[in-house]
Amino acid sequence: MDEVFVKKFALIGVAGYIAPRHLKAIKDTNNYLDVALDKHDSVGILDSFFPNCAFFTEFERFDRYVDKFRNTKDKIDYISICSPNYLHDSHIRFALRSNTHAICEKPLVLNPNNVYKLMDIEKEYNKDVNTILQLRLHPTIQDLKKKVQAKLKENPSKIFDIDLTYITSRGKWYFYSWKNDLIKSGGVSTNIGIHFFDMLIDIFGEVQNSKVHIKKEDVHSGFLELKYARVRWFLSINESFLPTNIKQKGQRTYRNICIDSKQLEFSDGFTDLHTKSYEMILDNQGFSLEDSLSSICVASDIRNCSLSRIEGDYHPLCMRFNDV
User: Fold this and answer.
1) Which residues contact 13 (CB under 8 A, 6 or more apart)?
2) Residue 258 forms beta bridges with which residues?
3) Which of 131, 157, 199, 205 might form a disulfide with 108, Cβ 3.0–4.6 angstroms?
4) Which residues does residue 9 pair with via DSSP β-bridges, in sequence order?
5) Phi and psi at residue 168, to the nearest 5°
6) H/E stretch holding 163
7) What one-character DSSP code corresponds to residue 156?
8) How much is the pTM?
9) What tens digit of pLDDT does each residue of 22-53 get?
10) d(CA 9, CA 75)
11) Terminal-residue alpha carbon distance, the chain
């Protein structure tokens, strides 16, 4: 790529878990990370990607650096946001007001109202907000969407029956971090489930009805009625829910989607999805605020609703609880 097309990036939250995928995506798309911010200084990962990147642990100094070039030919083009969930809204606003586009990890924000307000700010500054919805780019999921569309073309009244199970084990540290603070992370459904909700809505249509059967700090479970699907879902960070065969293999993550009694296998293929996301964004085809809205609404409703009795349609793993 000619140097004239290289974009300058800033990254907020460079010490976080997901940041390396963004660093790789910036480098893989032949762009340059000019400056990074994190209150933690354990950022040796920068040496593997952008060793000459400026780095700050104080937002005020980072703000001054970005602002210094705001209206010059050397301005930052994109600010990538990998900060904790509850800070996304503020950091997106900062990006737009700094005359840059924003690329934000999911969940884009925690509350639907924030999306509408960001839409106004986006128009005001004539800059774009893009989010990472990498499951939409997974080859297996894209193939599934084509097959579902074909079946619906044959039978427009078809309703699919789906069981979604996602267990990603977390250690004791999780419960002492911001991720276990409902106000900061949105809870299990938002923190680990929102990309699944987005994927299901994208393929099977908007939510018609939602029930939540279990809402604990390490487990959320419920039922979603979509336009073309009935979904029993179970999300957990508790390794005790892992299937025995998965434990025996020493694996700590289990994702399973069963559609009309047929298992969808998509354990692999996640390696370069952030890079694909960046390629789309740089080609003005990224996922927008509007694309993110439905899944944010679902996660918010789950977080704020009352529990329903465990009866009728519920995920089989709900039977593991003593109070069922």
Assistant:
1) 19, 37, 38, 81, 82, 83, 84
2) 163, 263
3) 131
4) 33, 78
5) -130, 105
6) strand 160-168
7) T
8) 0.93
9) 999 999 999 999 999 999 999 999 999 999 99
10) 9
11) 59
